[in-house]
Amino acid sequence: YSYTVSGGRIVGQGANVSWDLSGVQPGTYTVTVGVDDGCGICSPTVTETITVESCQCEEPDTPCDCPTLSVTPPPAAVAPGENMTFTANAVGGSQPNLTYQWDVNQGTIISGQGTPTIIVSTTDLEDTTVEATVNVGGFTAGCDCPKRASDLGIVGGRGGADLIDEFDNLTPNDVRARIDNLFIRLQGDPNSTGYIINYGSARQVAARERLIRDHIRLRGYDASRIVFVNGGVESGIRTRLWLVPAGVDPSDINE
Q1: Has this prediction a pTM greater than 0.70?
Q2: Does residue 62 surpass a pLDDT of 60?
Q3: Order of strands across the sheet with 108-111?
């Protein structure tokens, strides 16, 4: 048997051989076969044609490894009219091209939209909170990753009671850290009183108050400078921390 090819090479001998086309460029190739009886090709030849195409290989799937999302609020309350900064944290994961879209419930985003960090103006705000929410995009197709996180920044008052913190369902250690910050503020104003207002179900309020009282006792803080208030029933636990200077009427702080 005699084989003639226009590309590649014949591997083997006889009636059953392989046509090795590895390494050839995309295109059309022929193989022609004839029988040689020792005196030359004595029979009609047969020609077959094949086409080598480019490999339409799919890109390997990007691992769907999701980051942990959170928002870092200002570390302390800001005075009315001051700017506050919020930062989105995407920790871990394998998503390299994340995008960021921010919303705030009040105040005005003055810079940073589309980036991990924004600055919010609090002009005309006082004794309130600003909730900043980041919506994260750019995940690999098919990845069901968390796409939203938020946190609160505190805007203080003008000479009256000062709302210094507000938080909801935090870990016990995070709650303890917020109470430490309250006592730092109380130490800076020896004549002030701290009001801790808890909202939620009766069980939630009792558990939150017990956690805070235990921490105050463990730290050796002066418990006489704290007033606990049950703020009423809500769907989830929420705590507000107020600093009330001496001579200021605290009756309007439970809002």
Answers
A1: no
A2: no
A3: 68-72, 83-91, 117-121, 108-111
